[in-house]
Amino acid sequence: MGNIVAIVGRPNVGKSTLFNRITETRAAIVDEAEGVTRDRHYGKGEWNGKQFSIIDTGGYVQGSDDEFEGEIRKQVKAAIEEADIILLMVDVTVGLTDLDMDVAALLRKSKKRVLLVINKVDNNKRLEDTHEFHRLGLGEFYPLSSVNGAGTGELLDEVAKHITVDLVDTEGIPKITIVGQPNVGKSSLLNSLLGEERAIVTPIAGTTRDSVFTRYKGFGFDFFLVDTAGMRRKRSVNEDLEYYSNLRTIKAVEDSDVCILMIDAQQGLTAQDLNILHLIHTNRKGVVILVNKWDLMEKETNSSKKISDEIKERLQPFNDVPILFTSVKTKQRIHKALETAIEVQKNRSQRISTSQLNKVMLPYIDHNQPPAIKGKLISIKYITQLPGPVPRFALFANHPQYIMENYKRFIENKLRENFKLTGVPIEVFFRSSKGEKTYL
């Protein structure tokens, strides 16, 4: 057997709660409303020394005219194709339903290993009510309560028996997060890159609620792609689900290495886009800006250089950011976007030797020493890069507390002019050459 486990079933039976318990996270959104989990959502589980990937899916609904439910059906079928072990979850408090029978019939045709999970069994009366589920024809079943965890150990014991493939070590593999406002084309970009309908795409803003985490290997690339729910302004977040989706996006940014910020070419850089950029910058993540839907613009009146200059003007003071003009619809420059994101990650993770830094930077510093303050002459002795996952530089001086913000900006600009730091927020610290530390 392999190492991919999928949880499927009709809406609101507790799939996301079980997913969160197995992965020991709150990665999947849990809510009483039906249809909350729309995309497949991936995580990692471990039991008895065995590691496995686990997929949470949208609730399976048969014969519905609802656009989302039709998409969810496709997602469940795709998860079945991917999975080695399938957990069919049903709800003992509702009893056996026609939908449960439909899903079971679909699973029997799949020829995959299926484990029947009966949820919300938290007392003896409900345990007695489980026997009707024998009618599904799936053999032994596993009664449990995903809320309090009762019975999950027995289920995972059985899952672990069939896990024989070790997960690939993911340490050191870059994580690239696609962010932006709703309906700018984030999920379409993901699907274009992967060549499959990995995330649900509809023309309705706010379709993607959970983050979608996918390993991308191809064309010489190897990294993780994360597609997130669209970020909305706070006053637009008027329902709990949207609020939690924003939290997912913030968490995805925090966990990423590089963010691809998609903006709408017709709308330009908005105040909310700047808020997202501030979030990326605050978390010291690399960034690439994609101006999407470029195919809809009139090229004669909207030159890319003019718009690029306008965007950079609004990004001050951190405007050393790659800007690409793309069309996900026509697949224009989408692989260039990946190449640029990987280049930014290389910039972000590079180590510049102390000797090289001083050889390049000291001549600038010697010709442009910080101005004297209160009669004290300031002398910067040397510069070095500090350890860490992002570029951080320390300059040692005799009176660091008197160095002003504009001189820090001068140092940052010279670093950017001479080293490959495009797309990367950097930090500059001033420290006392006597060991005292001062941050600006």
Walk me through the structure.
The protein is α/β, with parallel strands linked by helices and about 450 residues long. It is about 35% helix and about 20% strand. It has twelve helices and 16 strands. It has helices at about 15-25, 65-80, 100-110, 125-130, 150-160, 185-195, 240-255, 270-280, 305-315, 335-350, 355-365, 405-420, and strands spanning about 5-10, 40-45, 50-55, 85-90, 115-120, 140-145, 175-180, 210-220, 220-225, 260-265, 285-290, 325, 380-385, 390-395, 425-430, 435-440. Strands 2-3-1-4-5-6 form a six-stranded mixed β-sheet, sandwiched between helices. Strand 2 and strand 3 (about 50-55) form a beta hairpin. Helix 11 (about 355-365) crosses helix 12. The longest helix has 16 residues, at about 65-80. The chain is elongated, with a radius of gyration of 26 Å. It starts with a strand and ends with a strand. About 40% of the residues are buried. Mean pLDDT is about 80; it is low at about 30-40, about 205-210, about 240-245 and about 435-440.
